[in-house]
Amino acid sequence: MEKLIYKLATIEQWDDAKSTGRFKGAPIDIEDGFIHFSSAGQVEETARKHFRNVPSLLLLTVSVETLQEHGKKLVWEPSRGGALFPHLYDDLPLDAILEQDELAMDDNGFHVFPPLK
């Protein structure tokens, strides 16, 4: 099982989460009824597919262990091409977010990722 998962969010969404003390997700998450996450091997493709040309994008590194300590259960469900993606049918506790990295964007509108753990 993955120890870390990743969430892409705008700075505005992250600032809202910090001000309210909880992260409910992006509008698509709220609409779908769960927070979409990616594994390390999935997150760059997720950004390329859904976040091209989105300014002020953050990569949130999330501790699966901290989610479990809060009694939050990840559900791994099929998505793109049948690959299993982690979903959380609950709010994301802010203390489960270990790092927040603002992603630079290249000239083609794709985000540049730091090395992932």
Model description:
The chain is α+β, with helices and mostly antiparallel strands. The chain has 4 helices and 7 strands, in the order E-H-H-E-H-E-H-E-E-E-E. It has a 4-stranded antiparallel sheet with strand order 1-3-6-7. Strands 2-5-4 form a 3-stranded antiparallel sheet. The longest helix is centred in the N-terminal third of the chain and has 10 residues, at 11-20. The radius of gyration is 13 Å and the shape is globular. The model has no long low-confidence stretch (mean pLDDT 95).
Based on the model shown, name its key terms.
alpha+beta; three-stranded antiparallel beta sheet; 26% helix
Kindly summarize this structure in a few lines:
The protein is an alpha+beta fold and 117 residues long. The chain has 4 helices and 7 strands.
Shape type:
globular
Number of strands: 7
Q: Identify the quaternary structure here.
A: single chain
Low-confidence stretches: none
Q: How many helices does DSSP assign?
A: 4
Class by SSE composition: alpha+beta
Question: What is the mean predicted local confidence, pLDDT?
Answer: 95
Main β sheet profile: 4 strands, antiparallel
**Could you tell me the radius of gyration in angstroms?**
13 Å
User: What is the first-to-last residue Cα distance?
Assistant: 14 Å
Strand content: 25-35%
Order of helices and strands: EHHEHEHEEEE
